[in-house]
């Protein structure tokens, strides 16, 4: 058998490659376009719960992106109390394979990829579904993905006001300080959900709840707002979907009935959100198959569960940039 080598990018290498905001958005958008064109395979994520789901679980995401020539599997742990050990709540590894032979082509630390691709999905949803003159962002949650939500949304909208809230005061204060340093603008830290999201143009709910609790009230949502709930446990009222003119998801296969977790899981199980009243998958909009926002009066919801194809797209972008910079290790597999 011929020698088989694969490229390994550890965390420091991924940080050195330092994809720009535009590079992140372009990679994830290309993956969405491929999905909309029918050039991807997305398997619904699988979950492994070692002991207690309240402590955390593993997500296993699997996919294939034909234009990139990769099949990929990402395993990401999501453990809420990791901060007590000085660890991110989410740690991940991405394996990329040759889809014709099954040969391992690359292995990457995917912790930052997970954060970046989530933020990019939120921001790209806004690009196609939020009002162009959106100026106020209300963001619930301060976990790793939250930073990229705010950073990439601000990159597109240059908000006049950014409000943030999370359960722990020390967490939201630290989150605001980092954003202020990196974005160069004042961040408003709120003590409660209502003052964070009421009348905001864009509302992102990325909370970490131990069990479903409707803390985000429908009455706080401004008409014509763009709302992105994606916490693992639902934090929204059942009535939220009643005020929406359009509801969009990243992949209906991961949102349909019978699957665990997700911000709109109660809405799917009770037929508040169905395949029939779903407007589109975001990839269909990116590919021009379905319209996005059509006027400034529409109130629109976007629920994204996380796409393997976004991990693969960012992994590909990092590998190419690392190669240009002479970074990464070649490891003999066989």
TrEMBL record:
InterPro entries: NAD(P)-bd_dom_sf (IPR036291), ODC_Mu_crystall (IPR003462), ODC_N (IPR023401). GO terms for cellular component: cytoplasm. It comes from the Bacteria. Belongs to the ornithine cyclodeaminase/mu-crystallin family. This is Ornithine cyclodeaminase family protein. It comes from Tianweitania sediminis.
């Amino acid at each position: 058998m011929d020698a088989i080598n694969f490229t390994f990018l550890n965390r420091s290498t991924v940080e050195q490659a330092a994809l720009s905001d535009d590079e992140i958005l372009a990679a994830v958008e290309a993956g969405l376009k491929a999905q909309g064109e029918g050039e991807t395979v997305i398997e619904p994520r699988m979950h492994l719960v070692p002991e207690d789901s309240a402590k955390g679980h593993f997500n296993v995401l699997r996919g294939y992106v034909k234009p990139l020539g990769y099949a990929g599997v990402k395993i990401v742990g999501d453990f809420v109390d990791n901060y007590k050990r000085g660890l991110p709540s989410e740690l991940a590894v991405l394996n990329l394979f040759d889809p014709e032979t099954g040969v391992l082509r690359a292995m990457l630390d995917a912790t930052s990829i997970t954060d970046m691709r989530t933020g990019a999905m939120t921001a790209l949803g806004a690009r196609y579904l939020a009002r162009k003159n959106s100026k106020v962002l209300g963001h619930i949650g301060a976990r790793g993905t939250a930073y990229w939500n705010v950073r990439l949304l601000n990159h597109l909208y240059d908000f006049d006001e950014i409000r943030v809230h999370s359960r722990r005061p020390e967490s939201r204060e630290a989150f605001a300080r980092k954003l202020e340093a990196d974005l160069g603008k004042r961040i408003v830290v709120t003590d409660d959900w209502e003052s964070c999201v009421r009348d905001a143009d864009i509302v992102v709910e990325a909370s970490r709840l131990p069990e479903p609790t409707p803390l985000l009230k429908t009455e706080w949502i401004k008409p014509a707002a763009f709302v992105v709930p994606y916490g693992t446990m639902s934090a929204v009222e059942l009535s939220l979907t009643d005020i929406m003119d359009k509801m969009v998801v990243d992949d209906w296969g991961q949102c349909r009935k019978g699957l665990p977790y997700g911000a709109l899981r109660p809405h799917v199980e009770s037929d508040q959100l169905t395949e029939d009243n779903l407007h589109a998958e975001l990839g269909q909009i990116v590919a021009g198959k379905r319209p996005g926002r059509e006027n400034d009066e529409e109130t629109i919801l976007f629920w994204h569960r996380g796409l393997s194809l976004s991990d693969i797209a960012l992994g590909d972008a990092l590998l190419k940039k690392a190669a240009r910079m002479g970074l990464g290790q070649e490891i003999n597999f066989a």
